[in-house]
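2024-03-11 09:14:02 DEBUG pipeline.ingest accepted 1 chain
2024-03-11 09:14:02 DEBUG pipeline.ingest length=504
2024-03-11 09:14:03 DEBUG pipeline.predict start
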Amino acid sequence: MTNGRSALALMRFASLRAACGSLSRFARLVILASSLFSSALAAPHAFESLFPAGGQIGSKVETLVSGKGLEKETLLVWSSDPHVVVLAGDKPKKFFLNIAKDAVPGPCLIRLYNEADASPPRIIEVGQFEEVLEKEPNDTLADAKKAEGKMNLTFNGVLEKAGDVDTFAIRAQKGKRIRFDLHGYALGSPMDPAMRLLNERGVEIAAGHDTHNLDPRIEYTPAADGALFVQLFAFAHPPAADVAFKGSASHVYRLAVTDEAKAVTNLSEPGKITLPAVLNGCISKAAEEDAYTFTAKKGDDLQISVRAQRMRSLLDATLRIEDETGKSLQQADDADKDSLDPTLRWKAPKDGEFKLIVGDRFQHGSAEHLYELTVKPFVASLTATLDTHAYRQEAGKSVEVKVTVKTNGTYAGKIKAQAVQLPMGVTAESVDVPVKGGEVKLTLKAAAEVVANQAPFAVEIVTSAPDAVETVTASYPIPFTEPRGDLLIMADTHPWLTVVAKKP
């Protein structure tokens, strides 16, 4: 069922995006791709996807991996979550996810590896609801009706060929709000998905495209009991001039359908606050702003930040500081090219009362426009980014690990970078990091008789000031082409090291 004015509108929208480029906020993220993700382009591409890309807590799930040449390999699997154990099956490309009963819902990473190399990590997801695999054919309403599902479950599917449209039927209850949340792009699938909701007559009653990333979300309250149909299709990502629906074995997705009320607790009422403070709020309606009043003394040095996009909120937050007369003293939108959430460092110009005002950049609002506001004394902090996700070490040779350290202030003590959790026979001396940050190189050296090994290691940045010692673990950005919003996991602290022994 690909007809309908909404589907046509979505195709026109995709055509404009492909032909003219995306909106400015998307453009900034494309620029980010060239700087953060360039090192990943030369990485192995054999492991392209896994289906289904997750499972329910306490279950054992049979999965199949997709990628070229995998049927000829003897592969092992690493998982970033000890509660998710991945075991090889009895056939090539078949694996089993053993998800523990005490696992926590959310994403984790897995890698395929052998003696010679390791794949880039892929994202899978641990869910809390019953899991259902799509059954083809499911292009039409009649097909979907045969496999009508109940509420509070996760559909697992793949848009496996060009022009593919997947349709699912669910039994809805009058007055009970339903949430349809699709993860496709967020899993790392090369897709720009769209979704529409139809009634029993096939009439479109709601549609969704982009949210905080390219994945759609729909919320709908039925006016009567009965069946509803949700249809999924996808455009190309990265964008292409051809705006036809796309598909492949890597167009894997997970669709959660729930009517459980979303728990929102500890929402702070705007008003007088005492510092330091961590507040949870919501911009619940259009053009609304939340104002928090606080007292500061001249010279007070504060670090103020809003977390919204990073918690999958619909809020595109803005932050503003005003004095008692309403004069704007400082404001922030995006923190930098890496973050769409605002943050700022502010020094009080005098004793008195001031206001912190949180709003939405486009003056939108809803129950989904949630945020967390943090106000605390400024303390110097740092971040550290690795140049790639995996390294290959040959016996008797050296390999460089580049680390870019960024600081938001000057440290009183020393900063050192060190490699830890290295396998036996591989060593690396720590290196000094400039107090203002910068790029440094760690040299990993392998002994001539080193034993073959494949495992993650870590790079730590250690600051030693007179009054404290702080350790930050460096991370690498998840390899992905042209990011247009967050994946479920954007960075990981487990770079991979393949140690190759000398041939006998």
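2024-03-11 09:14:41 DEBUG pipeline.report The chain has four domains: 43-127, 139-258, 277-366, 382-500.
2024-03-11 09:14:41 DEBUG pipeline.predict end
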